[in-house]
């Protein structure tokens, strides 16, 4: 068998693998293999890894090799996660209960509370979704892309849906909801943004109509009045406008163990200007 | 073809499907089908759906039918997501750019800041992970299960890792990091919990050692001093203990459009007791 994905150890073909941080191995298949030959190779690899005391075995299979999926499943693997171009399968060798980490469980959405100097709030009606056709005015919302920071994603979504340039101010609140998309959950971050431009250019594909609406008029909308979440959005947004509310703002942190930056969102006002509460 | 997954319309077999909220259809395959017959059936279905103006086509394929994956991929489907027992594939019929929502992108982790009446903080050393074997004391952390609320998951994790019963107080801060697990991102919620019991019983599988440590001793640990994120954790945790810091606490909200409850986390102190900031 002449494959770049396997190495010959005596008469046993073992798939090329790299170790992970948890006593397991990761195999990234790239070259096409004959399914029969692949199955033999996988069986031999599992024997070898068992002897080595390997625990979890990951196989990353590009979509071009979809014909091998059933052969991997036949060896006791299950699906861990999938992205458009690949499927990740996993298997646990020991007899003990597995400690394979769960798949990503949440989509991350953002909503933008944007109010201009004339006390008008930026609102839209969407072309699709559960509220379409109801005349329901809502703040611009969207979904964070893979690898995108919350503070960047919300500015991008407002620009895409309404054409308005903004700068990020603060996360005012967040909501966790379940079973929002198949079995997946949703984390929605409500953000205050400061508008930097004022001429609306709505996104044709997703937005029915967009406008700056006087905030009192928005607060009095019957559908907003009846929508519990919108009322919370208004309450924290108005409190923030009056400067009596502190949300969370991002601080860049460097990890010590892996070479990576991330952002921690915290109540910076209370850390900088500590004040005893009236509670 | 005698399958519960298809219906015969004249001489065209069309797969049984239900409409989604976005002009698409969802097919849930359950019964095994001969791969060749299935391919013909899928081709006919796609023609029919194209005529009907259907946009997105979802196929949920149980792992037992893994042999059909390649036949679905051959018709232009790609992977959307996967869970242990099934693979979800998707295809976009129109010539326009697709508006298929992204897969779940984030795992949700929690960390618990638990301090007892003797000003001791609950800390652990883990058996695996990037900090194993370094003598690094950290607060108990874990990953939220599918469908689990943050305030419930963090209490469960503390109980599992240390045996300590707690009650949830507040989310003090959160961190978003990328590429933390394959290409997936991570949202980590730092929570303040109030301890309800004191006798530690550590989890054998994951925890090397667990203890109540005087908080000044913890703050002086060299590895904590050098770990930027731990310093932020300490700063907000200590500010909260001194009652000068407001995080986010959960409020139950009912959705108006779908029959579902969720929790919004917000700065309840500032809403109840508004006070002008010193900024």
Automatic annotation (TrEMBL), chains A, B:
Keywords, ordered alphabetically: Hydrolase, Metal-binding
Nudix hydrolase domain ranges (all copies): 105-239
Any one GO molecular-function label of the UniProt entry: ADP-ribose diphosphatase activity
Hydrolase among keywords: yes
Highest taxon of source: Eukaryota
Hydrolase is among the record's keywords: yes
PROSITE patterns: NUDIX (PS51462), NUDIX_BOX (PS00893)
One Pfam family per UniProt: Nudix_hydro
InterPro entries, per the entry: NUDIX_hydrolase-like_dom_sf (IPR015797), Nudix_hydrolase6-like (IPR003293), NUDIX_hydrolase_CS (IPR020084), NUDIX_hydrolase_dom (IPR000086), Pre-Nudix (IPR040618)
PANTHER family registered for this protein in UniProt: NUDIX HYDROLASE 2 (PTHR13994:SF29), NUDIX HYDROLASE RELATED (PTHR13994)
Family the UniProt entry places it in: Belongs to the Nudix hydrolase family.
The protein's name: Nudix hydrolase domain-containing protein
């Amino acid at each position: 068998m002449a494959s770049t994905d396997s190495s010959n150890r005596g008469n046993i073909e073992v798939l090329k693998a790299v170790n992970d941080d948890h006593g397991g191995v990761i195999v990234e298949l790239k070259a096409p293999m004959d399914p029969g030959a692949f199955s033999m190779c996988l069986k031999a690899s599992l024997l070898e890894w068992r002897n080595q005391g390997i625990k979890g075995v990951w196989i990353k299979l590009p979509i071009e090799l979809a014909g091998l999926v059933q052969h991997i499943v036949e060896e006791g693997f299950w699906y861990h996660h999938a992205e458009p171009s690949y499927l990740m399968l996993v298997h646990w060798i020991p007899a003990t209960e597995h400690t394979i980490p769960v798949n990503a469980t949440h989509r991350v959405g953002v909503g933008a509370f944007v109010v201009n100097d004339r006390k008008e709030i930026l609102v839209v009606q969407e072309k699709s979704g559960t509220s379409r056709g109801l005349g329901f005015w809502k703040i611009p919302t969207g979904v964070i892309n893979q690898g995108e920071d919350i503070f960047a994603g919300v500015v991008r979504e407002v620009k895409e849906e309404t054409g308005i340039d903004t700068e990020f101010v603060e996360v005012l609140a967040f909501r966790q909801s379940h079973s929002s998309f198949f079995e997946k959950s949703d984390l929605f971050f409500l953000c205050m943004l400061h508008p930097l431009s004022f001429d609306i250019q709505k996104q044709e594909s997703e937005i029915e109509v967009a406008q700056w609406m006087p905030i009192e008029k928005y607060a009095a909308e019957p559908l907003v009045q009846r929508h519990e979440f919108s009322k919370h959005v208004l309450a924290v947004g108005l409190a923030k406008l009056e400067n009596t509310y502190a949300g969370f703002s991002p601080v860049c942190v460097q990890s010590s163990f892996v070479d990576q930056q991330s952002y921690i969102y915290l109540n910076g006002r209370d850390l900088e200007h500590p004040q005893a509460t009236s509670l």
